[in-house]
Amino acid sequence: MLQEASTQKVSGKRTSTAGKTQKLVKMGLLVGISIALVYLIHFPLIPAVPFLEYDPADIPILIGTFAFGPLAGVMLTVITSLIQGLTVSAASGAYGIIMHIIATMTLVVVAGLIYSRNKTRKSAIMGLCLGTLAMAVVMFGANLVITPLFMGVPRDAVMGLMPFILLFNVIKAGLNGAVTFLLYKRISGFLHNNGAN
Q1: Alpha carbons 118 and 110: distance in angstroms, whole number
Q2: Dihedral sign, CA of 145, 51, 99, 103?
Q3: Cys-Cys crosslink for 65: which of 74, 84, 108, 186, Cβ 3.0 to 4.6 Å?
């Protein structure tokens, strides 16, 4: 009996370790997809502000957040932002990394917290909508404080662009949220399968 219990305990630890490893591998895959999407797809949404470019990089991060929780979403956001900011988006420098982390982290934390409490379609929609609104509000403040410091432009000039910035953030987060909603259930089985069977 003792030997059987010991064997089960060891087997349980191996299964747990294998599950954690697979989770990290899948999160790494989501980071890679996110960076590839930025490289392949980026274009201006609003002609008046062509420097504000849409990209679908937040979709894999949101999917990972729904699958693994808000903390995983934060980790995915930071890692993706750092790698992206040092490679495909290197021209934006530290400013781009900081703004990406603030924007995406706001979106995934709000959406992830709401969805994690009640994993239904209604909860997913509510989380994505409230996450989009939260991101727009937070980025309003972030642009007023951070953009003048890094870009050397007057705060009044940033305020003049704020209607476009708000619209851009709502459209970008809304599009990424909608695609996430459509894709998540299709691939959630793969993300949750730990391969233990």
Answers
A1: 13
A2: positive
A3: 108
Residue that is written with structure tokens 């989009």 in the block: 132
Average pLDDT for the chain: 91
What mean pLDDT is predicted for residues 171-181?
Answer: 98
Question: Does a structural domain hold residue 36?
Answer: yes
Lookup: tokens for 133 = 């609104």
pLDDT computed for residue 196 by the predictor: 41
How many CA atoms within 13 Å lie on the side-chain side of 172? Answer: 28
- Number of independent structural domains in the chain: 1
Q: Is residue 98 part of a domain?
A: yes
Q: Of 118, 117, 132, 113, which is closest to residue 180 (Cα–Cα)?
A: 132
Identify the domain containing residue 119 by its residue range: 20-41+56-192
Q: How many CA atoms lie within 13 A of 72 on its CB side?
A: 22
DSSP 51: T
